[in-house]
Amino acid sequence: MDSETSKLSPAVFGMIADFFKVLSEVSRLQIVCSLKRGEKNVSEIIEITGLGQANVSKHLKLLTQAGIVTRTQQGVNVVYAIANPLVFSLCDLVCNSIATQLQKKNKHLKSLKVFQQSF
Questions:
Q1: Cβ within 8 Å of residue 86, ≥6 positions away
Q2: Hey, which end of the chain has fewer CB within 10 Å, N or C?
Q3: CA pair distance 27, 47, nearest whole angstrom
Q4: What are the beta bridge partners of residue 82?
Q5: Which sequence spans correspond to the domains of the chain?
């Protein structure tokens, strides 16, 4: 660790870990992605994700408590939106990293197939 990182308290690392924990569940990532194009109500999120109502509600509560999603009452409806669009930059960064890893593996796989064909 560099000197700046070593000055961070365990509580700060805990907050960072908690943020990543919230995003480490498949259904919650689906919900976050469903909100990329703007705010949605629960019915719209259910339709986009294919998840059940109870499941969506449970995960929206966790995402809201973590500050990743906002909840706004609009008349009789409640709509959800992304609190900070930087969450999408984080997801893009992770996806790009995974894509790079897969490309490297694919390159090795192609080399292996060429090697196999030489027999």
A1: none
A2: C
A3: 13
A4: 69
A5: 3-84, 85-119
Report angle CA 62, 67, 71 to the nearest 5 degrees. Answer: 75
Query: 64, 21 in Cβ contact below 8 A?
Result: no
Orientation of helix 42-49 relative to helix 53-65, angle to 10°: 110
pLDDT by residue, tens only, the chain of 119 residues: 556 666 889 999 999 999 999 999 999 999 999 999 999 999 999 999 999 999 999 999 999 999 999 999 999 999 999 999 999 999 999 999 999 998 988 888 888 788 778 76
C-alpha to C-alpha distance for 71 and 80, rounded to whole angstroms: 5
Rounded Cα gap, residues 70 and 43, in angstroms = 16
Q: Which of 42, 48, 33 is nearest to 87 (CA)?
A: 33
Question: In the block, which residue shows the tokens 């909100």?
Answer: 35
Query: What is the rounded distance in angstroms from the CA atom of residue 94 to the CA atom of residue 71?
Result: 26
Q: What is the CATH number of domain 3-84?
A: 1.10.10.10
